[in-house]
Write a structure and sequence with these properties.
This protein is mainly α and 80 residues long. The protein has five helices and no strands. The N and C termini lie far apart (47 Å).
């Protein structure tokens, strides 16, 4: 398996939605590829941070966020 192939399967690999043979290939690739192991870790951290950022959508906006950005994002929210 190449790095490109692994990255193409990343979401499915993490969800364990790949066939058993591909799962083994991914794990073998990770065992020998420090770059993909680091990429996998950074991907998992990024997803976790993204999820945590969206936990309290109705909470207060940090003071350092420009008001123009707040208004632009509020304008994109679906109407209830």
């Amino acid at each position: 398996m190449t790095c490109r192939e692994f990255i193409g399967l990343l979401d499915s690999y993490l969800a364990r939605e790949v066939p058993e043979d591909q799962l083994r290939q991914c794990e073998q690739h990770l065992a020998g590829c420090a770059s993909c192991t680091a990429y996998l870790h950074s991907y998992q951290v990024t997803v976790a941070l993204g999820r945590s950022a969206c936990q309290d959508l109705d909470g207060p906006v940090p003071a350092d966020v420009p008001e123009e950005l707040v208004q632009a994002l509020l304008a994109l929210r679906p109407k209830a």
